[in-house]
Design brief:
By secondary structure, this protein is mainly alpha-helical. Helices cover about 75% and strands about 0% of the residues.
Length: about 400
């Protein structure tokens, strides 16, 4: 087995991989008006284009686990990055709706393949600094969510208002990051890849698999659900002017959480209270968003984003903390499958509640219920136990 990179290089690579796994996904929202105009997309098709990656993440997480078992952790991450870049470039070259959606599927597959491998990669490179490595990786994910939105106006103008150029542009740094991973931490020979054991299918009947999935499953509705239904609520109460500030606060609020995780990594590792606190803060944020307007609503959105970012980062630490190196990938794959499926289901329930009640405010009730999982379930985990029982 080849030695892992040094601590600084490992942290730098984890941060860059995190950025790469979000650039292509969040490159879509800014260009939706242009896509709708060129391809004459319906509202349903726009919704499907935005929601397709989440569904693919849920459906293809096990493919990532299988790939890790076949080719190893580092090679699986590199493969996922290259698929992500290919999908992004493919969207830039799309000739119609079918090719646009096909490229989106490829992009989603790339992210879905890499995500289950990342907890295993953190455990392999930083076995004694798992929370630190996860915090840095999570910070990269969050930066990757912000960059496409923040830089879009400048890039769009610089490339003659070509949405195709922006998709092609975001593919380039992803390829570069994949190359850096290959050069700095080349895949070990398959026979010496200690992070895999040949097994890739999760132990679905095991309660702990579902417990991790349900804990992590509270994060998706809190973040994606709030992003989806907050504009409807603000428009309903006559404060559409707050939609942009509130969504900005919701997304930027995640960044401080990742910095705190990095700074206090050793103090919160293997403890349940950070999960509980994140869940409580999330509930406070959700209630604040739908009970207030004006600056208080924007502040509550930032609160919600902070809680979601903290819970997301903490959730990513669970597979490497509670599993043996050989088990991390398929435990993570199960966690992602359960959580992303739950995110889609809760979103559908939220929409149905909105339709039945006639008010967007009611759509946040299922989000609050899902957030309770982050409060109730972590205290039932024995964080002091020997790794290797997370999926038995």
């Amino acid at each position: 087995m080849r030695a892992p990179p040094s601590l600084p290089i490992s942290l730098a690579l984890l941060w860059l991989i995190g950025i790469a796994l979000r650039l292509a996904i969040l490159a879509v929202p800014p260009v939706i008006p242009a896509l709708r105009g060129e391809f004459n997309l319906t509202g349903t098709e726009i919704g499907a284009l935005s929601g397709a990656p989440i569904i693919i993440f849920a459906a293809a997480a096990l493919v990532g686990s299988r790939l890790v078992a076949r080719i190893g952790v580092v090679a699986a991450v590199i493969t996922g990055l290259l698929l992500t870049a290919l999908g992004s470039a493919g969207r830039g070259a799309a000739l119609g709706t079918i090719s646009l959606f096909a490229a989106t599927v490829v992009m989603g597959m790339g992210v879905a393949v890499a995500q289950p491998a990342m907890p295993a990669l953190v455990g392999r490179w930083l076995p004694q600094r798992i929370v630190l490595g996860t915090g840095v990786y999570t910070n990269g994910l969050l930066v990757g969510e912000i960059l496409p939105v923040a830089l879009f106006p400048w890039l769009f103008a610089a490339f003659g208002e070509s949405w195709r150029a922006t998709f092609l542009l975001w593919a380039l740094p992803i390829v570069v990051i994949a190359a850096l991973v290959w050069v700095s931490a080349p895949p070990a020979p398959r026979a010496s890849e200690v992070q895999t054991s040949g097994r890739w299918w999760p132990d679905w009947p095991a309660w702990d698999v579902w417990r991790l999935g349900l804990i992590f499953g509270g994060v998706g509705p809190l973040y994606f659900g709030s992003n989806t239904f907050l504009p409807g609520y603000l428009n309903e109460v006559g404060r559409s002017d707050l939609i942009s500030p509130a969504l900005t606060a919701l997304n930027l609020g995640q960044l401080p959480a990742s910095f705190l995780l990095i700074g206090f990594a050793r103090h919160i590792e293997r403890k349940a209270w950070p999960f509980v606190l994140a869940g409580i803060l999330g509930l406070v944020g959700v209630v604040g968003m739908v009970a207030t307007t004006g600056a208080a609503c924007v502040a509550s959105a930032a609160f919600t984003g902070f809680a979601g970012g903290a819970a997301f980062a903490l959730g990513l630490t669970l597979p490497p903390l509670l599993s043996t190196p050989q088990e991390v990938a398929h435990v993570a794959a199960a966690m992602f499958t359960i959580s992303y499926t739950g995110t889609v289901v809760v979103a559908l329930i939220c929409g149905a509640v909105w339709d039945v009640t006639g008010t967007a405010r009611a759509a946040f009730a299922p989000i609050a219920v899902a957030t309770l999982l982050m409060i109730a379930l972590p205290p039932t985990i024995n964080f002091k136990r020997r790794p290797g029982v997370a999926n038995r």
